[in-house]
Design goal:
249 residues, Thrombin, subunit H, 6-stranded antiparallel beta sheet
Length: 249
């Protein structure tokens, strides 16, 4: 009788941490980032740990792929973005639309629907989760502070009309005449100091926690996003934690 050979395939990915070895912080850290149910947070994902509150937020970033638009950019699979996230283009910060929908139906990429057109967004740009661009509370002595006036503002003397400030205000009070605000560009939300040490498939049950590594050799090409040079010292050490090193293998 003939021999029949059957092909089997198994899911998996290239290892993110060299030899799988890392040193873990004790206990878990409460995840403060918004994550879609079913999303896998892989080992080596960069995180910002707050030891005072025992919390962690993940770095969300993705390269824009060809074929999308300024309101519906395409990004690769495996990203951590979720509906409601505010994003900006790395190196810009002049706009900060939010994600209103994510289409995952294509096998090769996901499509984000942005709340507003991102002028100038193009292939190979990097989208990052960010603070909102706009006006924030300030003191009169702060450099760049603008005085809020009810009408007839004169920008050359450091004034801004109340209705203009209110249209893009992200402070903590109800603005009124004689208050002060300052215009801030969007900034990346996460400044990492650790990496995820154990993979987590996110669910909405219980309190999600991350197991975090304080020492690891992260295999840079196996991460799902580009690690920017601004986060590194000497091209390999995480700036805020030299025990985390990025290597190419």
């Amino acid at each position: 009788m003939g021999i029949s050979f059957a092909r089997q395939s198994f899911g998996g990915s290239f290892p993110e941490i060299w030899r799988g070895e890392c040193k873990m912080l004790p206990a878990g850290f409460k995840l403060t980032s918004t994550i879609s149910v079913g999303t896998v947070i892989r080992r080596g994902t960069l995180v910002e740990v707050d030891f005072s509150n025992l919390t962690a937020k993940v770095a969300k970033r993705a390269v824009v792929l060809t074929g999308g638009t300024a309101t519906k950019p395409r990004i690769g699979k495996g990203h951590l973005f979720a509906v409601g996230d505010v994003v900006t283009k790395e190196g810009s910060g002049s706009a900060s639309p939010s994600i209103s929908a994510i289409d995952t139906s294509n096998a090769s990429y996901d499509t984000l629907t942005l709340s507003a057109e991102y002028s100038g967004l193009t292939t190979d740009d990097v989208l990052v989760e960010a603070t909102a661009q706009g006006y924030y509370d300030a003191e009169s002595t702060d450099e760049g502070a603008l005085k809020v006036v009810a009408n007839n503002a004169t920008p050359d003397t450091g004034e801004i009309k109340l209705s203009v400030a209110n249209a893009n205000y992200h402070g903590s009070k109800t603005l009124a005449a004689n208050d002060y605000v300052i215009l801030k560009n969007a900034e990346e939300l996460c400044t990492p100091n650790m990496v995820v040490g154990e993979e987590l498939k996110y669910s909405d049950k219980g309190i999600p926690t991350l197991d975090v590594a304080y020492q690891a050799l992260v295999i840079r090409p196996n991460l799902l996003y580009v690690v920017p040079d601004k986060w590194l010292d000497g091209g390999c050490c995480l700036k805020n934690n030299h025990e985390i090193k990025f290597i190419k293998q």
